[in-house]
Amino acid sequence: MEKQKRKTKGLLSFLALLFVSINLIQAQELKLVNSESILKIYGTSSIHDWHEEAESQSGKLVFSDLENGKIEALSVAIETESLKSGKSGMDKNTYKALNSKKHKQITFQLTKVESVSAKGNGVFDVKIVGDLTIAGTKKSIALNFKLVGNGGKATIEGEKKIKMTQFNVEPPTAMLGAITTGDDLTIKFKTTFK
């Protein structure tokens, strides 16, 4: 009887360990690699087009199954004052419009995966919905991107058009209103996770 209990206990322990191991193999959490990630914001003004680049990003991408492109979680945070245009005056106007002293980050958080379409060789077309928070205003947005996954690395690449006023951000002006910024923005990203 005692021998049978030990056998059963041993078998249950083995099955539990096997189950945990399978879950660990399947679920994979990757961290955003800032030095290998690019996020640029493109806009217009009454005198010229402009763009800014995010110099400091963090985040994570969690897969329930990386081989099949099954995303469980995605979050990205951009330091507001890491947005740089190469022109200090423009950067100051951007930080003022985004109220960067109060809202130190721009964030995106996945809420739903709509679809994942395999294209072969670890490439997937992905459609998701998530919460984008800019200057303290959170909006649900749809986002499409290409996912390339291999081994312990994944890259997502895409673009999204938004309006500043969607997020209660007043488009910045300069020279007493002589220069005005357009409301429309295009965000382009190529983000690497390892």
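the 2nd protein, sequnce then structure:
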Amino acid sequence: MEISTLIGLVLGFTAVGVGMVLKGSSLTALLNPAAILIIIVGTIATIFIGFTMEDLKRIPKLFKIMFTKPKTISKKELVKQFAEWTTVSRREGILSLENRVEEIDDEYLRKGMGMAIDGNDSEFIRDVLFEDISAMEERHRDGALIFSQMGTYAPTLGVLGAVVGLIAALSNLNEVEALGHLISAAFVATLLGIFTGYVLWHPMANKLKLLSRREAELKRMMLEGILSIQAGDNVNAIHNKLFVYLSSTERKQLTEEIDNEKT
């Protein structure tokens, strides 16, 4: 499970809830059907208008991505894997990797290695795998855009809800006791709009963009490794090409691990 998302949600709701109590406001004030209707249903309406049903059907999957940690190979393990394949390929030929490819869990890596083993031209492999990355990034941008739009519209709908509430309050100026409650209820919509927009939807969009960038970088790393194996590069060349995708700390750790294995 992606624990950071859960921690963020708990902290966000706690901050607002405890903050309201410390300010002397009652949490029951948030139970405002009109405000909830305007903000939640209104936000949902905007994405239905702005996106197709095909896009919206992906929302459950997008939530799953944010709450579940993706099962991907680490960069360090990927470097080790390519170094091993390079050694085998240079000693026994690239066709010797055919059985190993069938055991690969990652579809992108399995497809790329399969094309290299089948003897496809390096430019063809690069073009196909780059297009795969581009298509993936486009899909991910569309998914993140849904949450970005929700984050944009929700605060504005909060202002709309406040205006509606103030209209109701101004129509009851003769009832002093009810006036205070009506004004308070009017600003609940603003609170809900700002909270959902800037604590929920925009951060979720940012997380989806971040996960997309990391996945794309990992695939570009795989692409470089695949092309290096096809070109017959040695292990040192593989390390030089793939180390650029690692942080300085990861490079140091991996170098120490490789040195320890040699000794």
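The radius of gyration is 26 Å. The mean pLDDT is 89.
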